[in-house]
Amino acid sequence: MASNLDVFEISGPIHLSSIDWSCPHDQRVVAASLVQATCIQEKDRENKRAGSEALAPAWWQPFHFECIKVLIDNHDSSIFGCIYEFKRPFPGHPSPPRFVVTFRGTLPDRRHGFQDGFLDLCVIFGGINKTARFETALDAVQKLMADYNTQDIWLAGHSLGASIATVTGKYIAKTNIHLKTFLFNPPFASIPLDWFSNLDNKLKERLRICKTILKGGVSLFMQNQRKKSLDEFSKLAAWTPYLYVNPGDPISASYITYFEERKEKEGKIIGYVEQVVTRTSLRESCSGVLGRGIEMSHLLPSASLAVNRNKLNGCTSKFTIMLLRHYSFKLESHHKPNQMLFIVGTMW
């Protein structure tokens, strides 16, 4: 029996009778609904629901999209992504995206647990960009751009899918093409000190400083890798993905601390050092020397971060619409000899 969370008439945004494509709220709802549709498509396939019994189409049809392609994981044959095309005549400016490419999150069941779990580890330890699922995703987006000669494409994903969307967006952004990207509960691939509640704040701050100095030392030692990271990070500056996180979710909540600390330390000496080392991670630096070239999905020079303060309630928290705090962060490149990069934040 299908879960109520998969039924659009019960859990979907049925209140949204018309879409204002200039409204960030409406854009977010559509992106989240299409991500949910991708997850339900895999459940439809697994439970052999087809035709009138399929639940997924109800999540894209109200917004006048059509699923033109599903992306299949070569290892477990599951649907992990979908390409949706807007099918109605474009209503003028502002207009909807021509295509939306979405990626589902981890499905914690016996059927998907092994492959999804393995990819979750790739996100944490680095190397999601070396997996077949990511390569399939990137190839699909690049082929879509080439076949239709368009950059009018949105990327969207939840959890594991948000990591795939992030790294895909990064690779495309390095070619100076910036696709609009929606990331719901994206994993922060680093263990934050805030997880250790038994440590006092002074000790945490000292450990942060030690970590920063260590990363700075490694970055300075690996000059070639440091220059490469600077060049790639600068190319990403104009790309601003939209992140939606909840403080109650330990996987993505660290983005809040990540950006708040950048703002707090702005103008301080240790803050300048941190702005340099946030371009890369120890894992990226070491992998670059070893020739592996892993990509850490959580390293973002720019982001628009929305914080949902609603309490988590199982899967219903994935795409909760009401966002009570909203941060907007923009990276500015100051043309100084040391090529420092700064994150400037505002809150409203």
Q: Between the first and last Cα atoms, what is the distance in angstroms? A: 43 Å
- Provide the low-confidence segments as ranges: 269-273, 285-292, 314-348
CATH class: Alpha Beta
Along the chain, the helix and strand elements come as HHEEEHHEHEHHEHHHEEE
Give the spatial strand order of the biggest sheet. Answer: 1-2-3-4-5-6-7-8-9
Count helical runs: 10
Strand tally: 9
Question: What is the count of structural domains?
Answer: 1
Q: How big a fraction of the residues is strand?
A: 15-25%
Portion in helices: 25-40%
Cα gyration radius (Å): 20 Å
Structural class: alpha/beta
Please name the CATH topology: Rossmann fold
Give average pLDDT, whole number. Answer: 76
Largest sheet: 9 strands, mixed
Shape: globular
Question: What brief labels describe this structure?
Answer:
9 strands, single chain, 39% helix, globular, 348 residues, Rossmann fold, 16% strand, nine-stranded mixed β-sheet, 10 helices, alpha/beta
Could you characterize what this model shows?
- The protein is of the alpha/beta class.
- It has a single domain, classed as Rossmann fold (3-Layer(aba) Sandwich), CATH 3.40.50.
- 39% of the residues lie in helices and 16% in strands.
- It contains 10 helices and 9 strands.
- The protein has helices spanning 8-11, 24-46, 113-125, 132-148, 160-173, 201-221, 223-235, 254-264, 269-277, 282-290; strands at 65-72, 79-86, 99-103, 153-158, 180-184, 242-245, 303-307, 325-333, 341-347.
- The chain has a 9-stranded mixed sheet, sandwiched between helices.
- A hairpin with a 6-residue loop joins strand 1 (65-72) and strand 2 (79-86).
- Helix 4 crosses helix 5 (160-173).
- It is globular.
- The N and C termini lie far apart (43 Å).
- It holds the Pfam family Lipase_3.
